[in-house]
Design brief:
Number of helices: 8
CATH class of the largest domain: Alpha Beta
Number of domains: 2
Distance between the termini: 48 Å
Number of strands: 10
Strand order of the largest sheet: 4-5-6-7
CATH architecture of the largest domain: 3-Layer(aba) Sandwich
Structural class: alpha+beta
Strand content: 15-25%
Low-confidence stretches: none
Radius of gyration: 18 Å
Length: 221
């Protein structure tokens, strides 16, 4: 969905050429209505939409599903990108952008969302339980609502307790990115802390290693 019909048409043609079925929505309201009825595999979301803006669309999508979201943002609008990632978007492409790059980003997000999990058992740390095979995480018996990116990051960290990772390495190891904005990692760590830590401001599980990045510390002996 995009507020510029020309851009939307170009994006549609590139994604269809890549083998995807594409539906266009001109406004945020139309997009939400269509998504509720058809449950798409992925949403390409322009943040500059008439009516309900893209950030609000992303927020409402996240209230009802974990559908992957790739945002289109204006070059230099870092606050919008961080806000979108904080609301649960999985990736972003800045305008002006290459439609081919967007198609590759879409393929990457879909591949991660549908990838067969690595062979491993359930990962348990106290009241936190992560099942990679079922793509399910629970805290104190309640299922956690995690995006694909959040789940992948949590599963990776809990599988490597006590090891410190740079943001750059997490981008590569968890999501397969050889480039990208490292603030993406920071935003996803913050969101995970809000969901798994008793006190997100004083995290016990996902620790910041100053000058390095992040480390998962087990709370159970």
């Amino acid at each position: 969905m995009d507020d510029d019909l020309t851009v939307s048409d170009v994006v549609r043609r590139y994604l269809e050429r890549a083998g995807h079925a594409v539906a266009l929505a001109a406004t945020g309201e139309d997009a939400l209505a269509w998504a509720a009825e058809h449950s798409p595999d992925l949403v390409v979301l322009d943040l500059m939409l008439p009516g309900i803006d893209g950030l609000e669309v992303c927020r409402r999508l996240r209230e009802r599903s974990a559908v992957p979201v790739v945002m289109l943002t204006a070059l230099g609008e870092e606050e919008d990108r961080i806000a979108g990632l904080s609301l649960g978007a999985d990736d972003y492409v800045t305008k002006p952008f290459s439609p081919r790059e967007l198609a590759l980003r879409v393929d990457s997000v879909l591949r991660r969302a549908h990838a067969a999990p690595a062979a491993s058992g359930v990962l348990v740390d106290g009241d936190l339980r992560v099942d990679p095979a079922a793509h399910r995480a629970e805290l104190a018996g309640a299922e956690l609502s995690l995006t694909t990116r959040e789940f992948d990051l949590l599963a990776f960290l809990i599988a490597h307790p006590g090891e410190a990772f740079t943001r750059e390495r997490l981008l590569h190891e968890v999501w397969g990115w050889d480039f990208g904005d490292q603030s993406t990692v920071t935003v996803h760590v913050r969101r995970l802390r809000e969901k798994i830590e008793r006190s997100p401001a004083k995290p016990a599980r996902i620790s910041t290693v100053w000058g390095v990045g992040y480390r998962y510390d087990r709370v159970a002996p």
